[in-house]
Specification:
Length: 184
């Protein structure tokens, strides 16, 4: 076998290797990662009753969107994300919804703490599901409660889920406000 034949055999082997490994004939799909956020509240309650304290997240959600396929199966969306964690977004929404009256001394106010139990999209029902436990605590008393919101999405897409979760968060803030006002 001559030098030209060896060179040709090596080139043929290299081409066969590249084709068989998928490097030449497969196209690479570029996926865009979409980021979503909860929007600023439409209704604001200037108040002098409580400060917004800690928000803790006990749901599996972090910055990736999660979809519940069945009672015990949750899938993570690789291409649709929240811009922040659920606790950071909800704490921001609550802080914007319930700004403190600047004339009031914040040291003597109650503290609102919130635990997030669910922050997900149910594929079967096409609903955003938000479940919160809250505690309003001051030195003399403690009020606890739970709010659970299911908000129907327009369809089973990430933008529709984000809008439904936005509506659920707005409803949760309003429900907690009404409960706190009733307990005064």
């Amino acid at each position: 076998m001559g030098k030209n034949q060896q060179w040709l055999a090596a080139a043929v082997c290299a081409v066969v290797f590249l084709i068989s490994s998928g490097c030449v004939l497969t196209s690479r799909t570029q996926h865009t990662v979409n980021n979503f956020d909860l929007s600023a509240p439409a209704q604001i309650h200037l108040q002098d009753q409580f400060t917004i304290s800690s928000f803790r997240n006990f749901s599996p959600s972090r910055t990736r969107m999660f979809y519940r396929q069945s009672s015990n199966r949750i899938v993570q969306d690789e291409y649709n994300c929240w811009i922040q964690s659920p606790e950071a977004m909800l704490q921001r929404i609550f802080t914007l919804t319930f700004p403190l009256n600047a004339r009031k001394n914040a040291e003597n106010l109650s503290e609102l703490r919130v635990d997030i139990l669910a922050f997900e999209f149910d594929l079967k029902t096409q609903e955003a599901y938000l479940a919160l436990n809250y505690t309003l605590k001051n030195p003399d008393s403690r009020q606890t409660g739970a709010v659970s919101i299911r908000e129907k999405a327009a369809n089973a897409t990430a933008p529709a889920f984000a809008e439904a979760m936005n509506q659920a968060a707005a409803k949760a803030t309003q429900q907690i406000w009404k409960i706190i006002q009733t307990a005064k």
